[in-house]
Specification:
Elements lengths: L2 H4 L5 E5 L3 H11 L4 E5 L2 H10 L4 E4 L8 H9 L9 E5 L4 H9 L4 E4 L4 H45 L1 H19 L6 H29 L7 E5 H16 L5 E6 L4 E5 H17 L6 E9 L2 E8 L6 H4 L22 H12 L4 E6 L3 E9 L4
Length: 375
């Protein structure tokens, strides 16, 4: 348990000793301040540790069948529990025994007969150190996540954002040169490329800004009553023209009465990103379906396509920050995976869930929920 939890619950100490009198003495010394778990043999201790993770272990050495040194070695060989501090509490006080104890992986060695005050102080000191190390591990993990986020952010700026602007500049220069020479061939095509690249850059910038704000908790959740069907219709209309060059049809399967209380901007962003992805990864002449219906206490929105699908080993990663999680669309459209991360953030902020089902070559179904009452 961490230091915050420690204020609410007692630390758990596993005491391993085959002598009942010794267990009683230890219980009288530590039982008031800590929660004690008892094992009367090394084998029983290891069995307890299969399903429990105490904060500290007090371990006797002289026990039948398996001595304390062997028990400690086995504990330290198990990845899940090797971090638990082990203190030997024993009558064996030869220097060789003490050295053997520390070599087995113990953090301290207390000889019997012991001073109760000393035992309390040593136990608490090692618990404090363990809690500090636990907090450090959590901090390290958070720093690694922040570094991954930072790397992703700079990767998007350095590569993905540069790509559409390079296209805009290149075709703009071609357009300018041909206009200067009064050569009007292909100018409509060039203008189309510029428009497409501009939209890609705007979508990416929008997602970048919203995602960056979400990471610093600067996005305020502003719930309001929403006509969900109308919001979906408005969003789908934006993509009808975008889907047209690929011959993609977007079907609506919507009830006429679906009102929710949620942040309209967030829900619109989720729908926009999911439909955008569906268009991107659906082949020429394909079909996308957008549906919404009430399911018990929530509204479930589904965006399904018959596109390229997602490999099974990547499904779990689609909502994670990952520099290698970008895939080209069926018309070589570039992306970052950032839109799906933003979808997950906004859906969870709205009190719902988001998931994906997919099969390579057959398409994908992205579903998310909006609680119908509690939002």
């Amino acid at each position: 348990m961490n230091q915050t939890d420690n204020k609410m619950a007692k630390d758990v100490i596993l005491v391993v000793d085959d002598q009942p009198n010794n267990l009683k003495v230890i219980a009288s010394v530590l039982g008031r301040d800590y929660s004690l778990s008892i094992a009367n043999s090394g084998a029983n201790a290891l069995k307890i540790l299969e399903n429990n993770t105490p904060d500290l272990i007090l371990l006797d050495i002289m026990m039948p069948e398996m001595d304390g040194f062997e028990v400690c070695k086995r504990i330290k060989a198990i990845e899940r529990i090797r971090h638990i501090p082990v203190i030997f509490l024993t009558a064996k006080n030869d220097i060789d025994d003490i050295v053997n104890g520390f070599s087995s992986g113990a953090v301290d060695y207390i000889t019997k007969p012991f001073n109760s005050v000393e035992v309390k102080v040593r136990v608490q000191n090692h618990l404090n150190l363990k809690h500090a190390l636990d907090e450090l591990k959590i901090t390290n993990q958070k720093l690694q996540e922040l570094n991954a986020t930072k790397d992703k952010f700079f990767s998007i700026i350095a590569h993905d954002l540069r790509s559409p602007f390079t296209s805009i500049i290149g075709f703009s220069e071609l357009l300018a040169d041909q206009m200067a020479e009064k050569d009007y061939d292909n100018i409509e095509q060039y203008a189309g490329f510029i428009k497409q690249s501009s939209k890609q850059a705007m979508d990416l910038l929008t997602n970048l800004l919203e995602w960056a704000r979400s990471q610093t908790n600067k996005i305020e959740y502003k719930p309001e009553k929403i006509d969900l069907v109308h919001l979906i219709e408005e969003t789908v209309k934006m993509f009808d023209q975008i889907a047209l060059p690929k011959g993609i049809t977007i079907k609506r399967v919507l009830n006429q009465n679906l009102e929710v209380t949620a942040d309209k901007h967030m829900i619109a962003t989720v729908i926009r990103n999911l439909i955008s992805n569906a268009v991107k990864f659906t082949r020429m002449g394909g079909e996308i379906s957008v549906s919404a219906q009430k399911d018990q206490e929530e509204i479930v929105v589904k965006i399904s396509d018959n596109g390229v699908g997602i490999p099974a080993n990547r499904i779990e990663k689609v909502f994670q920050i990952d520099n290698n999680n970008s895939t080209l669309g069926t018309a070589k459209e570039e992306g970052t995976g950032l839109g799906l991360i933003l979808c997950k953030t906004f859906v969870e902020k709205s009190g719902g869930w988001i998931k994906v089902e997919s099969e390579v070559g057959k398409g994908s179904v992205f579903s998310f929920s909006i609680p119908s009452c509690s939002l």
